[in-house]
Amino acid sequence: MSRITIPEMEATGNTPESAFSQIMLLAESATKRLSVGHRKNDLTDAVGTLLAMGQNFLKQAKSLQALAEQEQDAMSCYGLIRMQADNLCVMYRIYANKDEAETTFRYLLYFLDGNRKRKEVLSFDYQYDGYCTKEEYDSIHNQVISARANADSIIETCLRLLDNHPYKVLNPTLFQKIVDNSNWKYESFDATLTKPRKQNWEDLYALIDIRPNIQSFYSYTSQYVHGLSNSLLLGESTDDFYSIKCFGISLLGKYWELLNSLFGKQIVVNAAAPSVMAFIRKCMDEYLSGKKSKE
Question: What are the structural domain ranges in the chain?
Answer without folding.
Answer: 1-93+237-295, 97-206
